[in-house]
Automatic annotation (TrEMBL):
It is a single-pass membrane protein. The chain crosses the membrane at residues 408-430. This is Prolactin regulatory element-binding protein. Keywords: Endoplasmic reticulum, ER-Golgi transport, Membrane, Protein transport, Repeat, Transmembrane, Transmembrane helix, Transport, WD repeat. One of its GO terms (molecular function) is guanyl-nucleotide exchange factor activity. InterPro entries: Sec12-like (IPR045260), WD40/YVTN_repeat-like_dom_sf (IPR015943), WD40_repeat_dom_sf (IPR036322), WD40_rpt (IPR001680). The keyword Cytoplasm does not apply. GO terms for cellular component: endoplasmic reticulum membrane. It comes from Steinernema carpocapsae. It comes from the Eukaryota. GO terms for biological process: endoplasmic reticulum to Golgi vesicle-mediated transport; protein transport; regulation of COPII vesicle coating.
Length: 432
């Protein structure tokens, strides 16, 4: 039986990518592609907020009044965005300035967009919205040759922090990984050349990830998961369980002991050949570069559905898995214990999902006013929240409630301050 989560939005355009910009703005991208179907290709910005009309709020609890509000849109022309990454403008820029870099995959090109800060978007029949203004700043070719299938697509894109700036890592259908200077991209535009490029496989790169410190690159090609450094040196092959094919790889966290160089990451596996109710699997691995060792930390069976996407919360505390039959499962990262399963929540496959952050980092004034070191994230009335988008063109919010019920009241108050009061205060400041 389907276990529906709260639907917080309906999309008029199919969306394939979902990222966070700060703590409460969601960036979605997709569209109808080059076919002249009348379906627009767009990058959409949404504000995760609350319904302020108490008379219309559902009676099942305060968490059910969460809604999405339209906060901006960019037309991407004939190109539908198939993968995307979003980061603050530079590693030294705090999120609260509202300045972000967005990298998108458009056929064999990469397009870069910037947000110039928060702006107040006036609405006629509803409260004003705190939006993000986006503008296009660069386009350049990242895939130079067709593969054996005559395809030529950018298959993955990730930002890697380097000092106070970023490198961009791209992966293509030609089996190459390429690294680029973001500063050079902005300066040279379509004349930019890669800093490094190397072939990782004869086939296309199915998935791409970069460690949080920007030092390691993870790739999936065929049945192989490989770890590379930024210079293109192969550091380690990750063993794939027999009968399975890796689907997604995501960095989770570094070792809490600063004297160790352990890097933890998660890999999701689908059965190579689906036989009956054969389950998919999720593994958590640890890699030490200094010792050139890799080990399995924990593993778990997921569901008898093929995995489409996984997401790791910033800080690495929670992992969410989206599946092809519309289910979402949330795991505690340390031991891969499933804390909640939403079976068939979407009517069809999950196209992307994001675990909402535990902390709010884009409104330091509130933390200072409350004399707090940090304030909880935008869905803090729950222990963790996950936003998912699906082929049914709905946006859903999945909540894992606290075990300790008395703590919820305090969390609800903080969540209302964060998602309702903070944007209003920022909007007020912008109007001054």
């Amino acid at each position: 039986m389907a276990q529906k989560s709260l639907q917080i939005g309906t999309l008029t355009t199919p969306m394939y990518c979902l990222n966070l910009a700060g703590s409460r703005h969601l960036i979605m991208a997709g569209g109808g592609g080059v076919a002249k179907t009348g379906v627009r290709n767009e990058i959409q910005t949404w504000l995760l907020s609350y319904n302020t009309d108490i008379s219309q709020a559902p009676s099942s609890g305060p968490q059910n009044s969460a809604i999405l509000r339209d906060a901006g849109c960019v037309d991407t022309g004939p190109h539908s965005t198939m993968n995307m990454d979003v980061v603050p403008m530079s590693t030294g820029h705090p999120d609260h300035e509202g300045r972000f870099l967005i990298a998108t995959s458009h056929d064999h090109f990469c397009d870069i967009y910037e947000t110039d800060g928060y702006e107040v978007i006036e609405k006629e029949d509803e409260p004003d919205v705190l939006g993000l203004t986006q503008r296009h700043v660069a386009r350049f070719e990242t895939v130079f040759d067709v593969n054996k299938k005559n395809d030529k697509y950018q298959k993955g894109v990730k930002f890697a922090p380097v000092g106070g700036s970023y490198r961009l890592v791209t992966a293509g259908s030609d089996g190459f990984v390429r690294t680029w200077s973001v500063d050079d991209i902005i300066r040279l535009q379509d004349r930019v050349r890669p800093l490094r490029q190397w072939s990782v496989a004869e086939g296309e790169v199915a998935d791409l990830e970069v460690s949080g410190d920007g030092r390691l690159i993870f790739t999936i090609t065929g049945k192989d998961v490989k770890i590379w450094d930024m210079e293109g040196q192969l550091l380690k092959d990750v063993r794939t369980p027999e009968g399975y094919t890796p689907r997604c790889v995501r960095f989770t966290n570094r070792d809490r002991n600063p004297e160790r160089d352990n890097i933890f990451f998660a890999v999701a596996y689908n059965p190579t050949v689906q036989r009956g109710k054969q389950v998919t699997r999720l593994f958590r691995w640890v890699f030490s570069q200094s010792r050139s060792e890799i080990g399995l930390v924990s593993s778990t069976d997921v569901l008898a559905e093929r995995i489409s996407k996984i997401s790791v919360q910033k800080g690495g505390k929670w992992i969410a898995v989206g599946l092809m039959e519309g289910s979402v499962v949330v795991y505690r990262t340390d031991d891969l214990k499933a804390v909640k399963t939403m079976k068939n929540s979407h009517r069809t496959f999950i196209t992307d999902l994001q675990v909402l952050p535990e902390r709010t980092e884009d409104f330091p004034q509130l933390a200072a006013a409350l004399n707090m070191r940090w304030i909880p994230g935008p869905h803090s009335e729950a222990e963790v929240g996950v936003v998912s988008i699906g082929g049914d063109q709905t946006v859903q919010l999945h909540s894992v409630p606290y075990d300790n019920m008395p703590s919820i009241a305090f969390a609800v108050v903080l969540s209302f301050i964060l998602m309702l009061i903070c944007p209003l205060i920022v909007a007020l400041l912008l109007k001054l």
